[in-house]
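Annotated sample (chain length 274).
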Amino acid sequence: MPGADMHTHTYYSDGRLSPEELIKKGRESGLEAIVVTDHDNFEAFYQVNDLASSYGVDTISGMEISTSYMNKELHLLAYSFDPTNTDLIDYAKIYKDKRKSRAHQMLHKLRGQGFDLSIDRLEDIVQKGVHARPHIAQMLLEKEYVSSIKEAFDNFLTYGKKGFVPISHIDTVEAIKLVKRARGVAIIAHPGKNTQPKTIHRLLHKGLDGIEYIHPSHDPITSARYKGLVDSYWMSGSGGSDYHGTRPKEEDNFGSYTVSMDRYMAIKKKGMSV
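Output written by the structure step:
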C-alpha cells in the first residue's frame, strides 16, 4: 500500500530502530514518504532528512508533543516546522531534562519497593533518546516482574500505581502556538483514543490545523468518521502506523496505515518544507 506513514518513532524517543533503519524499512515496505514523530524532540530529523533521498523516500520534520488540555493528556503532532526555531529547540531541551528527572524518580520509587532496577541499565536502554515509561516497562519485562509491556503499565506505571510519578505537560493551546511560531502544522494525534469532538472544534478556533484520522487504534468506522470531519471542515488530515518496533502487531501495521501522497504534500506545503 504506497503512500505516506506520518507517525513513526526511532530510538531518539521510545522506538527500537535508528533513523536509517527506519527509513530503510519504509522503503522496503513501499512507502513513498515517512515522517519521524519522536516524543517531544526532533533530534532524528537531520539524519532522516539527509538519508531519505538516497533511499528514494520523501520526508518532513515531525514531532509528537505531549500536552495537557483541561487536565487531560492530549498528544499533538507537529509537522513541517522550522527545525532551527529557537523556541522549539528550547522546548525540546527542557522537556528532555524533565523526562529524564521523572524516569529517575520512578526508578527510585520502584527500587525503594524492592525492585532490582539500575540507573545504568535505564541509560543503556534510552541511549540517545528521550526517557519514557516504555523504557522502564522494558526493564520490568527483562527482570521478569511482568510478562508484557502492557502488564508493566497496568500494574506499575500508570496513575495510582506503585511506580507512577506525574509529569506536567505544556498546555495544548500553548503547544499549538509554539508549532505555529515555528511555521509548522499542528494536528491532534489518534483522537479516537480520548478526544471528544467538542475538543476538536474548540481547538480549531485556537489554530489547530487538523487531526490524525488514520491510526491503528481507530477501527474502520472511527477512521471514516474522522475523515468525514477532516473533509467537512477543510482540515489537514494525517495518518500513520505509530511504529515503535517494540509492540505486538506493529510489524503488520507498518506500511498498512498510511495516507495518500496528496494528503502528505498538502501538509508539507502548508508548513515550512525543508
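Annotation: The beta strands are 4-8, 33-36, 62-69, 72-79, 170-171, 185-188, 210-214, 236-239.
Annotation: The longest strand covers residues 62-69.
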